[in-house]
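Key idea: predict the complex, not the pieces.
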Amino acid sequence: MKYTIALAGNPNSGKTTTFNELVGAKEKIGNWSGTTVERKEGLLVVEDTKIRIIDLPGTYSLTAYSIDERIARDFLVKEAPDLVVVIIDASNLERNLYLPLQLLEMGQNVVLVLNMMDVVKHRGIEIDVNALSEILDIPVVETVASQAKGMNILKSVIAKTLDKSPKILNIDYQEVEGDIKRIEEALEGVDLAFDKRTLGIKILEGDQDIFDKLNCTEYFSKISALRNEIIESRSDDIETFMIERRYAYIKGLVKECSKKYLTWEERVTRSDKIDEVLTNRFLGIPIFLSLMFVLFTFVFRIGEPFVGIIEKFFSFLGQQAVILVENTGWPLWIASLASDGIIAGVGSVLAFLPYICLLFLGISILEDSGYLARAAFVMDQFMHALGLHGKSFVPMLLGFGCTVPAVMATRTLGSEKDRILTILVLPLMSCAARLPVYTLFAAALFPENQGLIVFSLYLLGIILAVIMARVFRGVLFKGETAPLVMELPPYHIPNLKSVLLHMWIRSWLFIKKAGTMICLAVIFIWVLASLPWGVEYASENSVAGKMGSVIAPIFKPAGFGFWQAAVALVLGIFAKEVVVGTLGTLYGVGESGLSTILPQHFSPLSGYAFLVMTLVYIPCIASIAVIKQELNWKWAGLSVSYTLVLGWILSVLVYQVGGMIIK
Amino acid sequence: MTPLSLLPKGTRAKIIQIDAGRGLEGRLKHMGLYQGEVIKVVQNTEGPVVVAKGGMRLALGRGMSQKVLVEEI
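Result:
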């Protein structure tokens, strides 16, 4: 016998932390079908009872105004869970009881969780939990999810409430009650999963989703007409009136159940004080930029030694594989496949895992503490001037680690246009995979100015992103960015467990998606470099080499019109960092040998042109796959074509113009 | 009746009207920013305006805050 329950709550209420506490590591992540909204499911076992928990998207209410809300309520009516656990930030009851109220109005079986009780106590607020529980006729549990307090009580309350038969909470809509009844009567015979009163209320409010559903039935015109009649007869807006009534109920409830409730006018909270500095007109952006600088230094400094260790390990592993094969007498190509193909493939993915993990760790900390919302706010004006939304900056930030999770992170952007625009410029944010290419070339060709060269490339990427955003905005997406409406959650000390979990989930996503692609790519490369049968690995006569020779002339104006460079770039389509390994293979030296070989084939200028090409040209295969998944082939195709063209133009420009300047 | 965007930090104001297209207006209202409710301006220099309602801090883009019409109290 299995039960199903749903977890609902506002964003920033501690819902995710609670979900993790209840479910432990047994989590399944996917998408709500037909959307890109994340869906999480887990298993909770309480006293031998198995309970399936679905984490609903965080919402403030259950209207039709956002896809998150529609997903939540569709789930509630279609799947009719046995219980809904609503988690709210108890330090702001008046605002946060709105969602629980809507759930109760829908007749759901509710357990109310008052989370962040530590903040409540700190603010001097006292909540009479028993009164609240009695008036609403539901169990109420106090928790501090970030400290895992109250979790066991919550679990047993959940177990006890599973079989309860819920009642519908009727809010008194006063003079509108008569109108609700009239609509209910007109709905006689309609078969939509919602109950009649809920439908009546939502129809009066003008719920677009309900209208769309009704549109398919013969009742639509009659009900529309009835609704219009009711609306005309009123002087005010009916939806506002109903919202007012709900809040009036809540205000009454809060007054009844909160003793010593301090009026907010008097209190400037600790968060407000911090905000005065962090979102200050003059300090805000510098502080943000400094934090970003610290973040990146942290990631690359600490990550580097680990990356080195991993690379050495896989190199060692590769050698062992060859020895093993030689000893067992298997044909040589197996050794090559194992060492240059599979091991190299896996190794190249895992090699930049330290950067990915550290970047996500840093971002999780910033996110959980509440700072990231402020950063979006601080950057909004600037982003707006670029034609981007303030919220675009988090994905762009992630793009410095890896484009794949960055593209996924654009889900937080409400407007489709803003999302597409952000995704189009994301590949220009120089990802971690390109770094090995930069550092190699910088060390070999610009030994005096390595840091500067690398930095210039990052900067160039950013500048290009800005320009292309403007261009696309003007050409493709005329019109304003979606307006910024964003809650600034109170600051919190980030919860270590939560942060690590967030980091791990995103890193794992990267390994799965990008990792598989990269591994397959490297093996494919191996195939190209090993055929025709018996050819010297990655020589000019292999398939790869021949492809390179055909393409190479295109790059002559950019200074690197030789087949090795062409092959490296082509193979770099699969995974950017493969460029390094490929060059090493093609020249017959290991990576360490490359620093001596490179200056023989590249001048500093052509080397830089090559780096510009690497920076700009085409998102890697994994990114293309994700872009296609999140949007469609059209946009993926555009990403591919514009970056290829732009990359070529720029690298040629660099070489030609640079050549003229130097002379 | 003035747009929210013109009010300095520290002002308390009562919401009169939101002129912002059904979707946006609806979202704000369900969040608690509806006619008659009082909000306080926490920040208003350039860019987004931050308002407080109870314990909630909400950042509204400049354009948005120009469409929220309020009365100072």
